[in-house]
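Render this sequence as a predicted structure.
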Amino acid sequence: MDVRIQGSSQTPSASTQTLGATVLDDARRRLGRTCLIVAIANVISLAVIALNIFVLETKTPGELASVIVIDMALGSFAMGLWALGRSPDIKPALLLDVALVFQVVGALCLSIPLFFPVEPFPTGMSRIPWLCLWLVLFPLLVPVARGKAAGAAAVSFSMLPIVLGISLLAGKPLPPSDALVFTFVPVAFCAGLAMVPATIVHDLGKSVTDAKRQLDRLGSYVLVQKIGAGGMGEVWRAEHALIRRPAAIKLIRPAFLEAGSNREAILARFEREARATAALRCPHTVALYDYGVSGDGSLYYVMELLSGLDLDDLVKRHGAVPPARAVHLIRQACESLGEAHAHGLVHRDIKPANLVVCRLGGTVDFVKLLDFGLVTDDSAEADDEDSTKLTKAGSVLGTGSYMAPEMASGKGVVDGRADIYALGCVLYWLLTGGTVFEAGSLVEMLVAHMNREPLAPSARGGPHAIPDALDRIVLRCLAKDPAERPANARELEAALAGCSLDEGWTTDGARAWWDQVEPDIAETTSPAASAPTVITAGAAAGARAATEEATVITTGASDPTRLEPPPPGSSPG
């Protein structure tokens, strides 16, 4: 499973953790509607003013100048806040903080008519200021902490004496004492009363958030934030309910399971594969913490979070890597696959997005192999030929650009040598910055893997000289006949280790690269440590790669690499 978040911006803020993303998103929608109502009301007010000035001629522009300024200022602020709320980049918690500024601006605008009145200043209780209603209702829209709500109410109330002082400096007479009393007292009372709805809304939001977190709990883990979604399911950032260890949870949707002909057999296979994957101890294999079935019938894996770049992002961001570094990275992947193959497990979806190069403590360029969720167990093939595969008859599992010929054709035995072929494609990607074959459609890509002979990596050109020995190793991995490839991952690792390279990739060079080129990717504890915090580059690529696991491929698709399976009766999600 490939889970990556860009920087720390995707980590939930303290406000989000207190109230929850669902509550804040709902508050953002309410705030947006309110801003539209305020803006429309001010437009209507300006239209009435224009009617009085230009049609009825009952007022002059000078007499209504303060009202015009107020309507334009408040309406503009409301529309600006509405537009800000529609931006996908603005965090709900930050938006609600900006909304408190809107509360203060609204209080200022509603205070001006009290001391710069169009009509004579009202006396007694002939009119309760609109500011009272504004102060009481606004906290219902913005569920902020009580301290923030109290501060906003106090600043809003302070607009009254400020505007009064400005009116006196402008030469306006001091209003009658009873008018001041029946202006300041109700507003002060409502400013204090505003704490009641503020407290109720905030506490209700916390209750809803706590209840949702309990519902979102999977085993011992609590879902924190969705960080990816695709045709097969979703990927969430989560943490252990007791020890707060961060983790990544991949959910496989019930709709995908229902596409199979035998749900019970699929669940049994899922459990067997999860146990087999959890038994892997190679530090270059992503750690599996837990697995199970959620209340809604979704299958889920709980795995470690990683800090680094997948090889897809690495090449797209920085281009082809030096041969010595490519060999260094692939040798680590071979260690992971070597253990898996020794346990009879075939990964079936080796690709750049499933190999992450990390900073782990003092170790740099440390590779982790991900997404064993679609692994197959050679020892169980005989029992699973009918209905226990996660694909239907006639389907092919894998990713087109990295698919072995025997997988593309659906003929022959698929074993560890299919992973060797895919790993050769990944090595080709690292060395050249391109896939082995270019094709305009999925079918053309599959045909190319089955029939076309690949160019040697050195023949593709590039910034780095590729030695002949490495060319031969790559082409051997890409042999159409599995018997002509390295027999297993350990044999490939030995061949790479024996490939003499003029320019080595040293530890000091690797550390300098990370410090200079990707300084924002933080170090974590150690290769054997529990889940590190995620910090990686490429938000869009991260969300994409987080869910681009091995996918069902059918004929007629236009994408040369993959087509995610839609749930029955729906389109891909």
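Summary. Residues 1-17, 121-126, 379-396, 524-573 have pLDDT under 50 and may be disordered. Residues 308-379+390-553 form a domain with the Transferase(Phosphotransferase); domain 1 fold (CATH 1.10.510.10).
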